[in-house]
């Protein structure tokens, strides 16, 4: 029997970075959770403990802070690319860097109907995400970069235009068929860009709009059908996107039985269960899309 070191990576997970731009009139704030993961020629540290090729995770964390200071943050995709290129470009044994970023939203507090210059409230909106991978190993022939953008926890709900029926029934099936139900989910989506160069902010706004518009306008016979419609609509309208991956928890809303109280509940009062939830996941891809390579 021979035992070998398999795939490995290491980095600093979840560096929480808050960057304040102190403009003369008003401040801006960016709030990120940044994770770095490096891989390459790292056998020595695993096999003998020789750390000559191990850029400390502590240094990786400091680099995140220093880059925010020296270059600003900007779009999270650009910040991720800058960091990933720095690690593969300056550490000879490191051939691949993946930088994963979550961005938490803040908006100005209004004071007497005008936006306060330096006071903010966290938005109740989704979390924007980016996952950037840069590789310069021999197999890649120069440097290659992949960018996956996304969003997490975008909670949406339709009060009608949703049915679920026609499914197989066995001795354990108790779910009644429905021709009018509440459909709710927290959209978790990631989308792979055709190129590692795009107008990231504009693209994000467009994808978000098409995801939500597809959710709102699809007459749904299953959350699976809605999932496909959401991915399809993004790919129809956003040529810069090659593939969309969706993970949609079915946030069940059960009609409360009010007959014991002598009341008729005409789809008006629901019990919003948080667990368990159906989890509907799928990928929608355009057939001319470039290969995903190391994007995921
Ligand atoms: O849209 C749905 N898809 C399912 O697969 C499913 N399963 C279930 O119990 N309810 C639902 N709803």
From TrEMBL:
Class of this enzyme: oxidoreductase
Secretion signal, residue range per the UniProt entry: none
Gene encoding the protein: pucL
Keywords associated with the record: Oxidoreductase, Purine metabolism
GO-annotated molecular function: urate oxidase activity
Protein name: Uricase
The reaction(s) this protein catalyses: urate + O2 + H2O = 5-hydroxyisourate + H2O2
Organism in which the protein naturally occurs: Haloechinothrix salitolerans
Pathway the protein contributes to: Purine metabolism; urate degradation; (S)-allantoin from urate: step 1/3
Keyword RNA-binding: no
Annotated EC: 1.7.3.3
Superkingdom of origin: Bacteria
Cited function: Catalyzes the oxidation of uric acid to 5-hydroxyisourate, which is further processed to form (S)-allantoin.
Family: Belongs to the uricase family.
Keyword Oxidoreductase on entry: yes
Lineage: Bacteria, Bacillati, Actinomycetota, Actinomycetes, Pseudonocardiales
């Amino acid at each position: 029997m021979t035992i070998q070191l398999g795939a490995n990576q290491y980095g600093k997970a979840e560096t929480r970075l808050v960057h304040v731009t102190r403009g003369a009139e008003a401040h801006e704030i960016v709030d990120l959770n940044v994770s770095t993961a490096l891989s390459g020629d790292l056998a020595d540290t695993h096999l003998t403990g020789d750390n000559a090729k191990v850029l400390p995770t502590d240094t990786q964390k400091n680099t995140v802070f220093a880059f925010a200071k020296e270059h600003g943050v900007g779009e999270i995709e650009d910040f991720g690319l800058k960091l990933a290129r720095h690690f593969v470009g300056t550490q000879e044994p490191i051939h691949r860097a993946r930088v994963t970023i979550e961005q938490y939203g803040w908006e100005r507090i209004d004071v007497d109907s005008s936006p306060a210059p330096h006071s903010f409230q966290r938005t109740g909106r989704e979390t924007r995400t980016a996952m950037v991978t840069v590789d310069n190993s021999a197999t890649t022939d120069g440097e290659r970069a992949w960018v996956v953008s996304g969003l997490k926890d975008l909670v949406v709900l339709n009060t009608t235009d949703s049915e679920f029926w026609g499914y197989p029934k066995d001795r354990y099936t108790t779910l009644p068929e429905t021709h009018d139900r509440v459909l709710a989910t927290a959209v978790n989506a990631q989308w792979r860009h055709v190129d590692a160069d795009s107008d990231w902010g504009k693209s994000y706004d467009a994808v978000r709009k098409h995801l939500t518009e597809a959710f709102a306008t699809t007459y749904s016979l299953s959350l699976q059908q809605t999932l496909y419609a959401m991915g399809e609509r993004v790919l129809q309208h956003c040529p810069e996107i090659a593939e969309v991956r969706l993970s949609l928890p079915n946030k069940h809303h059960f009609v409360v039985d009010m007959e014991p109280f002598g009341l008729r509940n005409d789809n008006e009062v629901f019990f919003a269960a948080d667990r368990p939830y159906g989890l509907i996941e799928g990928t929608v891809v355009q057939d001319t899309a470039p290969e995903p390579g190391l994007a995921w």
